[in-house]
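Slides due. Your pick:
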Amino acid sequence: MKTYQGWNESKMDLSRYLQIGDQVDEDLVDYILCVLPPATYTSSVIQMGEPQSHVAGRETFTTVHQVNDKWYYAGHCYRGQIVEPELSYQ
């Protein structure tokens, strides 16, 4: 499980500390929720309020989602989604 304390101690950027599918602790979920007003906040999906990047002209957000009372990192997803968009190099 990836923790808020572990992230602070790692001195890494959050997107480098977390890998898609990592389980995260409540403190890290609270950070993502409270650092800025969230882009998405439901009982099972939270997205950080500031866009992380743009894919195909749309903003993506740092995303965590809940499954069976556990929170998981989903990457940088479009608003309201829990799967990262595929990059297109066309």
Residues 29 and 64 are 7 Å apart (CA to CA).
